[in-house]
Amino acid sequence: MSNPLVDMEKPDVIFAIGTNMTECHPVAATRLKKAIARHAKMVVVDPRRTRLARMADLYLPIRVGSDVALLLGMAHVIQREGLVNEAFVRERTAESEAFLEHISQFTPAWASEITGVPAADIEKAALMYGGAERGAIYYTLGITEHICGVDNVQSLCNLALMTGHIGREGTGVNPMRGQNNIQGAGDCGAVPANFPGFQPCHDPASIEKFSELYQTPIDPGKGITKVAALNECGKSIHAMLIDGENTIVSDPDRKHCEHALKSLDHLVLIDIFLTETAEFADVVLPATSWGETDGVCTNTERRVQRLRAAVPPVGEAKPDWWIVSEIAKRLGTPGFDYQSAKDVFNELCSVSPIYAGLDWDRIDKSEYQWPVPDKEHPGTPVLHEKEFKNGKGLFKVIGYRDPAEVVDADYPVWLTTGRRLQSYHTRTQTGRAAGIDYLLSEESMEVHPDDAAAWKLVDGGMARMSSRRGAVEIRVRVTDQSPRGTVFASFSFADVPINILTGSGYDPVTDTAELKVCPVKIEPLADC
Q1: pLDDT profile of the chain (528 residues), mean per 10
Q2: Which CATH fold topology does 413-525 show?
């Protein structure tokens, strides 16, 4: 997030797109509720009429996968109505001329034809956000899990640059992270293109620096993504280590994932439970849970937090850092002689410019948000206050493109996937709690009442949902939360493996799967 969580209480206008925050980030969402209680206005863009959408002053029920068209239409209105922050654009940005010329062609009427959102509402959303003193953007995986995920994010950045809603209290472009410590994992280099601290893998100075640190030559260029790695299983990749992820349930195109893991000569899993993915492993190494682990977590607002073990580990469980270090040492890899989580974190601080002013003792009270470049620095709650990392904020010329697959006569219904409040991700943890099972014991497919009648579906009955990759049988839940022509289900339940259906395409930059858009067909089943 460019701004801290406390800033969620401070915008005049909240623009929430592709985020079901009251279910997926319920604690953070309370801050938006406080902002609304203080008379902030909120625009919500979502295919489904979620609880957050019902709280909105303006709800835009967008067709799945058409976010870029909507954002181009809004940009057009902001320019047409003279709401561009000319001083900010002149002093803080670059490439604005080409962008402003580009958006002149994308009228709200054009955007309406693609998105299904009335042109008048697109205009109203643009006027609300563009005319605000403090406008803030919030998004989650509903923006990124598309073949155009990068385009979506860059389009949101364009809106912030046009209006100057960045680098100030109560503004910003704020992605809410999908899981705890996703931010911290990226900070540590768990992304293909970067070393720790987002130092690029193609930079010769970074290559030299980390080759020396790791006492081994590092090839230039970025590494491969997990998508690419799964495609190479049984070809160039014959062994794999999966740490803390239930790949079989969470990843798209489940049949492809199963085939990939079966093609390996050796699969090692590190986890706290025997998950569905663990069934494919040759070796499962037991890790400590969060309550048994000393360590560090960096959260969605870039806050670096100390974690302290509350209870001793059960059985043979060990911290992940210890397991990985022991594997490395037994492979003869130098540089893994850590004695504690403190050693690991202090090494990160020594090599990462954004952590350079921190150490294990300084984060004792979890009060700092990176970047913290030196020991005297107080941390950075708000990014981009005076300048951008590269000096100027760059506008990007983005065009609209359809999802990888679109509805047709064979698969006439849009499926979009997500999460539910009662179950977390793949239920590795929440699925083992009786109380949670009482609240949500099975997966269901949300379908609009008009569609249910047309397709001869019965509320509480069963249906077969099929895509070009497979089919699942699923309980029907009739509700006006999903619009006509679109159904929704979560991927949480292994016995209703929704991700058998998904996986039609991937973002060409990030390899992120298009989990939010999948054409399907729906057929009623006789009651079981």
Answers
A1: 97 96 92 96 97 96 97 98 97 96 98 98 98 97 92 97 97 91 93 93 94 90 90 96 93 92 97 94 96 95 96 96 96 92 97 97 96 97 92 95 96 93 77 81 94 96 96 96 95 87 91 92 84
A2: Barwin-like endoglucanases (2.40.40)
Look at residues 145, 146, 253, 147 and name the one whose alpha carbon lies nearest to residue 469.
253
Burial degree of 66 (CB within 10 A; 0-12, 13-18, 19+) = buried
Report CA dihedral (220, 221, 225, 229) to the nearest 10 degrees.
-50
Residue 220, number of CB atoms within 10 A of its CB: 10
CATH superfamily of 5-176: Dimethylsulfoxide Reductase, domain 2 (3.40.228.10)
In this structure, what are the phi and psi dihedrals at residue 489, rounded to the nearest 5 degrees? -155, 155
Q: Tell me the pTM.
A: 0.94
> Do 437 and 431 meet the contact criterion of CB atoms below 8 Å apart?
yes
Q: Where in the chain is the domain with CATH 2.40.40.20?
A: 413-525
